[in-house]
Every structure is written in structure tokens, then in C-alpha cells.
Specification:
Layout (H helix, E strand, L loop, with lengths): L1 E2 L9 E3 L5 E4 L4 H4 L7 E5 L2 E2 L5 H10 L3 E6 L9
Antiparallel strand pairs: 1-6, 2-3, 4-5, 4-6
Length: 81
């Protein structure tokens, strides 16, 4: 998925150190793209999340001009895959 920034330059979601979405701004661009709490980011901008520290993930999300992500939706009960 491609993630857009709001007018403040924010993506509208937070991730934990494992690349799992902790929260999403309701009805923002990330929400509209289908991102939900419990989704697991597998890739950020073509880089595998397992190769990144939490700080590197945040930096990549903050500084990349075009943010793309490969995302696994959570299980039916909302727990991450």
C-alpha cells in the first residue's frame, strides 16, 4: 500500500518495535488506505522490517518522500499475525 501524508506531513499512525501498528488516526489517510491497529508492517519502502531497529523504522517512515508498505492484516480477533 502507498501511504499519504496529511498537511502536517504526518502519516497518521504509530508502530511498535516489532512493526505492529499500535494506533491509527481515525478517518485519516492511513485509515482510508486500510491500515488498522494490529496490522503488521512486513516491508517499508522495499526494506524488510525484520532488518530494521525501531528507530530505523521510524526514521524511514519520517523521511521517505513516498512511503510504501507491505502489510499483513491482523487475525479476526485483532491480534497481530
Amino acid at each position: 500500500m502507498t501511504l499519504r501524508r496529511n498537511r502536517l506531513g504526518q502519516l497518521g499512525f504509530h508502530i511498535n518495535s516489532e512493526g505492529v501498528v499500535a494506533d491509527v488516526e481515525a478517518h485519516g489517510f492511513a485509515w482510508q488506505a486500510g491500515l488498522r491497529p494490529g496490522c503488521r508492517l512486513v516491508e517499508i519502502c522495499l526494506v524488510a522490517v525484520v532488518t530494521l531497529s525501531h528507530e530505523q523504522m521510524i526514521e524511514l517512515l519520517r523521511t521517505s518522500r513516498n512511503v510504501t508498505a507491505v502489510v499483513l492484516p491482523p487475525h479476526g480477533d485483532g491480534t497481530p499475525r
